[in-house]
What does this fold into?
Amino acid sequence: MRKPRDFDSELQALSEKAKQLKDRKVHQLGELVTATAADA
It folds into this structure.
């Protein structure tokens, strides 16, 4: 018999990972803007 999956913890982990990715993307975009503005 298969063990039931813990959807709540999986969703929690996925949303946490998505938040980290989004934060990193925003941070990198900010660095890119800063770098290009410094060159201009």
